Amino acid sequence: MAPLKHLLGIEGLNPVAVTNLLDLAESYALLNRSGKTQRDLLRGRTLINLFFEDSTRTRTSFELAGRRLGADVVNMAVATSSVSKGETLLDTAATLNAMNCDLLVVRHNSSGAPALLAQKVGASVINAGDGTHEHPTQALLDALTIRRNKGRLSGLTIAICGDIAHSRVARSNILLLTMMNNFVRLVGPPTLMPGGIGVGGVEIFHDMAAGLQGADIVMMLRLQKERMSGGPVPSSREFFAFYGLDRAKLAHAKPDALIMHPGPMNRGVEIASEVADDPQRSRIKEQVEMGVAVRMAVLETCARSNY
Ligand code: NCD
Q1: What is the dihedral of CA 196, 171, 204, 163, to 10 degrees?
Q2: Looking at ligand 1, which atom is closest to the CA of residue 221?
Q3: Among residues 252, 245, 186, which one has the least CA distance to residue 213?
Q4: Which end of the chain is more exposed for a tag (fewer CB within 10 A), N or C?
Q5: What is the distance between the alpha carbons of residues 263 and 176, in angstroms, rounded to a whole number?
Q6: How far separated are the first and last CA of the chain, in Å rounded?
């Protein structure tokens, strides 16, 4: 596929680029299951994980992905670095640049921080989640999980439910899934719906029964309290009663509808354990597995742009 210098968002990709990334990721998913590695591909390359926000899955899977391809991986713990002493983002970038880093994976609480870094460093910058803007590798791993389970990535009805307003996962998924010609529905209370921008081509529902009717995929999102102001949700209990996914609400979706969640889950808030842990319907663990494969594909594709 055409080299990709940075991966800052799904915005800017086209269906061919998405399909190529997913095909490559699929081959890595098979390789990972076989227990083999490809340690020559990124040998001698340096990957720095620069995380200004907490993360379990994303940071660990970028680390594993880099190591499985043979890269030298460094995790910068921001709290113990000069960043906590007030060094600016750009000073940090200049320092990392001087170390000849090839791949810089960035998570930041400000939307646009990875794009700013991409203008200033020689490395390929990969957005691992910026503010409420985008989380492109999450959307790619969700797409791969859907494609593997449904055999296609178009013409599906996908309900994205809960805290859409604060979710970069929702935003990247909306962009990717509409680009691939799916029917995307956003389901949640009016206070958790995003304002206008970036949500063209989707249907909005404020009622779970209506929004889940006939859905192939039910994607649940965490209530992102750390990003909320003004109390858009009365209480977690009330939220669960109206918008939490349990067996009764899931019954409105297609009988073979699959459940997804990017994690971390708030059990009993947006999702009940009875559905989150249902081996027939939940694909939450497979999403995590696909996260490593997708990140291997993204790292390889970005690294090739620097050859
Ligand atoms: C998401 C994130 O950080 O945006 N988590 C993740 O990457 N798996 C979603 C969330 O925090 O709720």
Answers
A1: -100
A2: 12
A3: 252
A4: C
A5: 19
A6: 14
Q: What is the pLDDT of residues 22-79, one digit of tens each?
A: 999 999 999 999 998 888 999 999 999 999 998 889 999 999 999 999 999 999 878 7
- Whether the CB of 262 sits within 6 Å of ligand 1: yes
Q: Whose CA is nearest to atom 11 of ligand 1?
A: 264
Which positions ≥6 away from 14 have C-beta within 8 Å? Answer: 179
Cis peptide before 189 (omega within 30 of 0): no
Residue located via tokens 């969700």: 142
Other Cβ atoms closer than 10 A to 204: 14
Structure tokens at 56: 């379990």
Dist CA 245 CA 140 (whole Å): 23
**Sign of the Cα pseudo-torsion (243, 194, 155, 23, in order):** negative
Q: In testing the pocket of ligand 1, which one of 58, 107, 271, 289 has its CB within 8 Å of the most ligand atoms?
A: 58
Q: What is the pLDDT of residues 146-155, one digit of tens each?
A: 999 999 999 9
Give the number of the atom of ligand 1 that is nearest the alpha carbon of residue 58: 7
Please name every residue paired with 91 in a beta bridge, in sequence order, or none if there are none: none
Task: Strands of 114-270 (E only): list them.
Answer: 124-130, 157-161, 183-187, 202-205, 217-220, 258-260
State the Cα–Cα distance between residues 84 and 86, nearest whole angstrom.
5
Q: Give nearest CA residue, ligand 1 atom 7.
A: 58
